[in-house]
Amino acid sequence: MWLVTLLFVVLTVDAQLSLYSRLAFTQSHDHLPRTLINGNVLGDVGGAYKLQHALVTVFQEVLEGPLSGKMISLLVAQDVEVDINIYEFLGGMSTPVLLIRTSVSRPRDNSSLETGNQHDLQQVDQLYEQEGIDQAQQDNSPRGEHINHQLLSYSVMVVVVGREVPWQLVSPPGWWSPSAVLVLSVHTNCQAASFLQTPLLQKTSRVALLCPKHRHDHTLGQPPVTFTVYSWCPYHPERQLVVVGRWNLTKFSRWGELFQDRFASLYGATLHVSSHEEDMPYVFKNPDDTFDGVGKRMTEAIGEWMNFSITLTRQPSDNRWGELVNGSWVGMLGHVWRGEKDLTINYLTITEERNKYFDFSFPYHNEGYGYSIAIPPPLPRWRSLVYSFTALVWAVMGGVLVLVALVFCALTHLHNPLSFSQCFSSILQSLMNQGMSQVPQEWSLRMFLGGWWITAYVLVISYTCNLIAVLTVPVYPTRITTIQQLAHTYYRSCMLDYGEFVPEALATSTHPALSALGAKLDLMPVDGTREFGGQEGCVGLVLEGTHAHVESFSFLKLLYFLLGHKDVVYFVKEQIYQANLAFFFRRNTPWKYKFDQGIQSLVESGLVHKWYDDIMSDIKKITTTSEEDSGPSEQPLSLGHLQGPFLLHLVGLLSSLTVFLVEYCTFNQAGASTQ
Q1: CA distances from 148 to 63, 69, 77, 156, 631 (A)
Q2: Which residue, 136, 177, 282, 291, is the most exposed by fewest CB within 10 angstroms?
Q3: What is the topology classification, in CATH, of domain 388-472?
Q4: According to the model, what pLDDT value does residue 105 have?
Q5: What's the pLDDT score for residue 668?
Q6: What b/e sequence results for 220-247 when a residue is b if at least 16 CB atoms lie within 10 Å of its CB, and e otherwise?
Q7: Residue 78 and residue 209: Cα distance in Å, rounded?
Q8: Spatial separation of the C-alpha atoms in residues 196 and 232, rounded to whole Å
């Protein structure tokens, strides 16, 4: 009997506490309606209280679990606040949250939003800190706009939705690119597929949706409202809406558990690549009319991992590379910018201007634009006799020769004095591989001459060995190695006008050397009828010795290899606009992060570098093999190689003839005076 009495007391106290809680909730939140949106499921204030309590609990668990440490932006539409007390919803939060209270319909004037401001959002001014609700003042200054822009662009967006879909999900601003979007519905009959297919969620990499469900048969200890986690796989051929599971903090405690990798596979989809076939070694056509290149091999490797195929284009419809013209992009980047293609994999460096309009992948190579210059004609062959040593070595040898002759004269003065001409001749004989007619008897002279003969022997051997190389290998003037040197020469520059940023960058550069090169740049029109699209025109100017050819460094080397001019040009070591190469995607491409992971793995494994080296060496082997088939390159020494010694002998003959004539005249005059 006493058990029945105790049970009756407990039930009575519980009913009184429940009634008190409901009355307190109703009195403090008079704006809440008596019925929730779905009256059939939660049809009274008690149901509203249970749902709000469940929403607060789930949101707090999400913040403490998978969203721990993330910047959070909370988007709440007006129709939600009719049924949910937002102050009660956020009052107990321990994580700072940026609250965005907005209308359901899009404002008529949205120009400010498209330019990066948030004036049309009704309120972006409430930050909830640990102490409670702290309403900040509206800040319309540029600094405040910048802070909001950063938060809205890179934070995790939590959207609390009601019956209507907020306009930010349907037509999001172009700059709005949250790292993840979590949709939290306040309705038990939420349209999961409709929300997950909105444009904002379609362009976001990581998305999830929590839908509530009221449990009529819940028992003691179980929550009256549960939430189901949904995700969306847009490329799945059959099951795009994915039921991840019932919300539980233990099950979804990590980021990857809540936000499923919905692009782990593209299920055989076809990605369309905007490409240009004249971009060795990144994208090019083989003789059998098949595509190859570093970019193609990388994309195919990622395609095997993500299960997709690709299509390539021979060249853009406008035959341009990719530049901004009158506010619109043209060429390969234009195709991607307009959404006609999914990505481009050609030689494209990461620039500040491109970063404003496109997403780019993890960089895979570093390269710039180089210059090729015709090798100048070799120096005259007759000067080959002096090329073995530098001018400084020749000067030092002349001074040493005079000094040694003077010391030798001083030593002979003590025993058998000789004139300076006799001493100089004796010292010079050792450099001509001639010995002295008589070795001095004095040991001081012998020791002095022994040291000099060893020195002379080394000098003679060095000169002879270098002379052999000089006679067989032509000697050229000093080559240009830096951009600064090139800017101060008479060379003009030539580049194919296919729509790269280099001509404009050189023309507007504040760097003196680059500006000078830009002032001397001649653009060659594209000629689709020629094998390399008109690059042959710049090659001809280079061979004439008037221009330097500027182009991407790898392509420039291969171009002259294939045209058979690799032995008549050289490449300036210093490059301009050296930067990282990357794949480019349309802004907010949701699966770009998978390419980042794939490219990073290919780079770190060394495959990208290997493919680059293999393609470069394979193309060079084509020209090397054809040159070897033409016959041996060895040839005997010709008269041109030995013109220096013959000219020197001729000078000696003329000198001796002149001296002979002087002696003859002097002898005749002396004989006449004697008679």
Answers
A1: 20, 18, 18, 13, 72
A2: 136
A3: Helix Hairpins (1.10.287)
A4: 67
A5: 74
A6: eeeebbbbbbbbbbbbeeeeeebebeeb
A7: 19
A8: 6
Q: What does the DSSP 8-state code read for residue 349?
A: B
Q: How far apart are CA 452 and CA 471, in angstroms?
A: 28
Q: What is the pLDDT of residue 76?
A: 87
- What residue spans define the domains of the chain? 21-106+117-258, 263-364+582-628, 388-472, 638-670
- Residues in the chain, how many? 675
* Least confident stretch, 400-404, 417-421, 533-537, 628-632: 628-632
Q: Classify each residue of 412-445 as buried b or exposed e, where b means 16 or more C-beta atoms within 10 Å of its C-beta.
A: beeeeebeeeebbebbeebbeeeeeeeebeeeeb
Burial class of residue 327, CB neighbours in 10 A (0-12, 13-18, 19+): exposed
Q: In the numeric block, which tokens belong to residue 68?
A: 């721990």
* Other beta carbons less than 10 A from residue 388's beta carbon: 18
**pLDDT > 70 in the chain, percent:** 80
Q: What percent of the chain has pLDDT over 90?
A: 43
CB 361 within 8 A of CB 370: no
Q: Which two tokens stand for residue 504?
A: 């404009």
Look at 3-17, 246-260, 453-467 and tell me which has the smallest mean pLDDT.
3-17
**pLDDT at residue 23 tops 80:** no
Amino acid identity for residue 41 in this structure:
V
pLDDT confidence of residue 7: 35
Residue 120 has pLDDT above 50, yes or no: no
Give whole-number Cα distances, 500 to 189, 212, 505, 551, in Å.
53, 54, 9, 10
263-364+582-628 CATH fold: D-Maltodextrin-Binding Protein; domain 2 (3.40.190)
Beta strands in 375-452 (DSSP E): none
Torsion-angle region of residue 577: left (phi > 0), alpha (psi -120 to 50) or beta?
left
> In the structure encoding, which two tokens stand for residue 108, read together?
């008529």
- Residue 613: CB partners within 8 Å, gap ≥ 6? none
Rounded CA-CA distance 615/284 in Å is 11
How far is residue 443 from each of residues 415, 418, 521, measured CA to CA in Å?
A: 11, 17, 72
pLDDT at res. 107? 59
239 has pLDDT over 90: no
Which is nearest to 184 in space by CA: 15, 361, 12, 52?
52
Helix axes 607-629, 294-306, angle to 10 degrees: 140
